[in-house]
Amino acid sequence: MKRDPMKSTLRFALMIGLLAGIALPTSAHAETWTIDAAHTHVGFKIRHMMVSWVRGSFGSVEGTLEMDGKNTETLKAKVSIDTASIDTANGKRD
Fold it and tell me: Would you state the pLDDT for residue 28?
């Protein structure tokens, strides 16, 4: 019985494809993102003398976020906020 070279080539390619799929890691590698300060807002709201609220923000923030694939349980964040960059719209209070 004569072998069909096309079928043999197809089987070989399929076998290599399956083996390559098994050899590849199943989890994605960790990706790291840098916080873009121009598009980031760190704000707060605190009660003032039990009567009103004071709102403010910090102008200087930097850091990174790291996550492995789509698994949110692996999320790691490193954030640094410069407390001297506080702005409550009241210079004396700041």
Answer: 57
pLDDT tens readout for residues 37-59 = 888 889 999 998 889 999 999 99
DSSP code string of the chain: -PPPHHHHHHHHHHHHHHHHHHHS-SSPPEEEEE--GGG--EEEEEEETTTEEEEEEES-EEEEEEEETT-GGG-EEEEEE-GGGEE-S-TTT-
Q: Give percent above pLDDT 70 in the chain.
A: 70
Average pLDDT estimate for 79-88 = 94
Task: Kindly state the greatest CA–CA separation across the chain.
Answer: 95
> Taking a C-beta distance cutoff of 8 angstroms, is the pair 66, 30 a contact?
yes
CA quadruple 66, 72, 78, 80: dihedral sign: positive
Cα angle: 8, vertex 9, 13; to 5 degrees: 120
Q: What is the pTM of this model?
A: 0.58
